[in-house]
């Protein structure tokens, strides 16, 4: 097996150029960073993306996620290892491989999470600037909220947030049934307390997907100080001692080297950021040496702490209410749906993958449970599994996920080949607590389905099935129907500099090396209580402030640690 030094001896490398900042990955975080950093006209920014342009038409039609996930044009096509908690099943693990990253193929749901999520981050980093009171203005700065500016929302920013352009009677009825079981109605999940049931807000503009590329990258593309390279697979970071000075990437059959005067910023996501760190010699030293990789910095936390939301899909056949299953069953139904979108940009083709949401407690009698720990994604359709045809009868799906799982997984390379997929082991349902919450989640869904509002449609559970009744059986059912909801985080988590499990500090600098930050969902110490795309955007907004402030501090001869934004204490 060749070592890193032998790899570096390959002759066909060309110098691409020298830049102040190199951003690796044009996903949500990378698009934000490229925009914000290039606002300073005296810096040169390079953005490197392995995928292509976001000019595939199915990216922009909301229902087009069906044609983007599992498509090598837009998806890395990752798979997990066989998961013991899922009865030995391996899952597809979609990640965006295109400008905009996963914001080009995701569910478009605008969700911040709960205030306690960020207060927990502040405690984990001993930095109150990560608390809810201090990140809320950052969320608002990015936001262009359909309802205008308010105490909770911003207007005029690049990140468009709109109401969905559809209604379904079966969803309205589910919301009524949820209220009958004690879940209150809400018209806004993003005030810091997302308790309740209601329609999700979405990142769309007049019924068209609004991804990070449209929001942040396109406005910056004409700047002469921003260079964007697509189809370029970053293979390794370049170090001089313990300072990161550039990157090596491959375009076609040619290997290139780009140099960074100030910093390299790794924004490749919770899967690819730890992969690239390990390929470059940062990670568990013993693991890297076994793969023939020279160790730059022994950081055993790299690739650990993987957290994800496991959704448990329950489906119910109904009578007397129409769903998408039958509305699209015949050619004329499909024609009407197509015309509705073509003329009005509304209807089923404008649908986010999930339309109705609910946040609830898995055990309302548990006094230690002070906030919702379950999230529902409810859809007016049903199918056996993703990618297969809809059922030919009316039915709805209620997927429920545990918001703050205690299970922890990992992502690690298995060779020093930068083009080999890493080993992804989420380790779902590996704790007694998570299995118990899963069983309670299935019970709660059945209570909602049995509430008077839905009972009139005679809901019949078809997935997983009423044969699962006892605690043990329900836990088995959770392993049978559980699947990822595409929220991997935490594999380069931030923490205190003396924490052996931390990878980056509170300013997202890789601990123990210079000139290198990680800015993406991988830095989250704990997963947010909801969808993770917009929290990642907020992280990138904060990071751009930090990076620009550090540069000004260096120019002024000040220590970079002296900069602190205005904050509100947790006390």
Automatic annotation (TrEMBL):
Glucose-methanol-choline oxidoreductase N-terminal domain segment(s): 96-119, 269-283
Which SUPFAM superfamilies does this one have? FAD-linked reductases, C-terminal domain, FAD/NAD(P)-binding domain
The GO terms describing molecular function are: flavin adenine dinucleotide binding; oxidoreductase activity, acting on CH-OH group of donors
Polar residues composition-biased segments = 557-571
In this chain, the stretch annotated as Disordered covers 551-571
The positions annotated for binding FAD are: 98
| Cofactor(s) required, per the database record | FAD
The protein's name is: Alcohol dehydrogenase [acceptor]
